[in-house]
Amino acid sequence: SNLGDYQKALPLYERSLDITEKSLGPEHPDVALSLHYLASLYSDLGDYQKALPLFERSLEIREKMLGPEHPDVADSLNNLATLYSNLGDYQKALPLYERSLEIAEKSLSPEHPYVAGSLHNLANHYFNLGDYQKALPLFERSLEIYEKSLGPEHPDVALTLFNLSLLHISLQQPKKALEYVLRSIPIQNSHIKTIVGMVPEKTALDVISEKNETIHLLINLTYRYFLEDKYTIKHTFEQWFLRKGIILDAYRRFYDVIFSDETDEVKELLLRLKDISSRLTSLYHRKDDKEVEKTKKIIDSLEEEREAIRLELIQKSKAFKTLEAIWDANIDTILNLIPHGSCLIDFALIPQYDSENNKWLDPHYYVFILSRDHIELLDLGEAHIIDELIDNLRKTITPGERGPVVIEIPIHKIAQNTEDTFKHHAHNLYNKIFSPLKDKVKDNIIISPDGYLNLIPFEVLVDEDGSYLIDNKYTFTYIATPRELFLFSLKEDRQTHISLIMGNPDFDMDIEEAQPKAQVRAVDIFGRFDPLPATEEEVKAIHSIIGDAQLFTGKDAREDVLNKAESPRFLHLATHGFFKDDTPNPLVSSGIALAGANKSYINPEDYNGTGIVTAEKILNLRLKGTDMVVLSACETGLGGITKGEGIYGLRRAFTQVGARGIVTSLWKVPDKETKELMVAFYNNIITKNKKSPIALKEAILQVKNKVKETQNHTHPFFWGAFVYAGDVTF
Length: 730
What we know:
The chain is an alpha/beta fold. Helices cover 54% and strands 13% of the residues. The strands form four sheets. Strands 7-6-8-12-15-16 form a six-stranded mixed sheet, with helices on both faces. It is globular.
């Protein structure tokens, strides 16, 4: 439960309590300990009513069996007080906190870390009551003890600094609050640095999510009190981008190490480093530690060993040295890497801090606007309003149902009738997220989205004149985090191989029953994949443009062919894509279909999912150095959204295994127009030597203009789904 897997821990704690009671009797101190752990778990789950009688019984046993002055009694009092605080019963909590502190100071020592914890909790109590003058000296004394007993880099030091920052906001001392929060963040970053890439991704997400309140507070502080202070805005942006998307960047570099041609010695060192990092994470998150000094010695020893291994890996592994570099970026580096004539707009989904009531409120979308010589911070307003506008827009994208039904309906006629509705929603969204920026941005815009903003191409927004933004001067490139500008600038040994092109897979391979042709590249309502004849024309045309490429279609467009690919220069996959938002694992819920996919749906046990290539499977590919992956299919840019980490899906998976750029779609796409768009796109890159963002924009405009000429409408369903994300220099 130290790492947050409470549901798995609950039956284990319950069984432990049952065994302990039966073997030792109902009043044994070990029973009190089991009760304590079970109560703490219920408290962490927010089930305070179940936790309360367990804490009370644990306290009763400890007072009776150990005596009223025992440190374990202080521990029980402290946890019971915290529970009452969570229930809002501050009057019951206060004497328990005070008695807990008194026992701890007597039974341990005034400089013991547990005393610091008791002081911290009592300070928090007064803070919640609004008695800031009583809280301040308690927090300060707690900080002093923590720094002396645990060292200045311990997570408990960072937490106390954070709470001091909150306190000074309430005391109307924003400069002091800024000082404390800026001291807290580097300590947290040092801890995050030891775990990302080294522990399971879910664990890393949980740890970082817990620590992101410091970044959220910093942005709140900066916007509220330091909006005219460009130095503070720059420093705030630097702390934000070092944290945003850190898991994606860390795991991307970690895969570089795993799949690089390293020696057995390097791989053994890496395994040792992972083991140490997992143990350290568990120790740092240990609750109710009764042997603090012993734990500190273990932590110190492990950190010393970890640092020694890290330095050895830097010497012996180029890939690991690059992994370490994700923390080397700074604000000046990022500003200098923004191309001339370009700007970066970096969105941040940040909860609002209510200093009057000491609580967090619903989030707003903030945006940093940066060029080489300018930086600005704006608040775009409540996130739920913007998210609702995005939902409204997405509901009007597809002018008809998917799968075989599309064949029976005149989708261009529907598009003519619904484009005005789409434009209405696109203009409403434009007013919220782009109009406030339009006088501050340049023609070439690099966008790092956050939250639901990952689900829309800015190109389809509609301005005051009723024009789509793609018709204006703007060219958009998308990146997961500003740090990517730095990572793509690093000089690495890159060796790409012949390009790989796959299209029109035989989804019914090994099935006798034939299927109808599809017009939309998405799985139909029956859970089967229909043939996509236009993808055959598409991939053959692209093959003739690229020249030096392997081409696989029909029964040859198989999953095992993709799995054998090793750093192709271009990887083009023209097929069906799918995304289902009703599964708990977004890396399994998004994917593409290759040959034999329908047999996997009909009889998955016999076929082992062959032909269904999920984002999770993509993580086993070797694409380090691949210039670009193009997913010419439906909804390949969708996935599970994680605040500050982007979308968990195909785009993230391909990026994580090394692709420098990727083209994906944000909704279902029509077969014929997609073929025309893709052929024009590659022709612009290869024949006309244009960079990917410009090549894609011009290809989109070509298709858009053709739809207007032939169908008398410009509905974005037919041209607006695809976006380029990644290396802005390619």
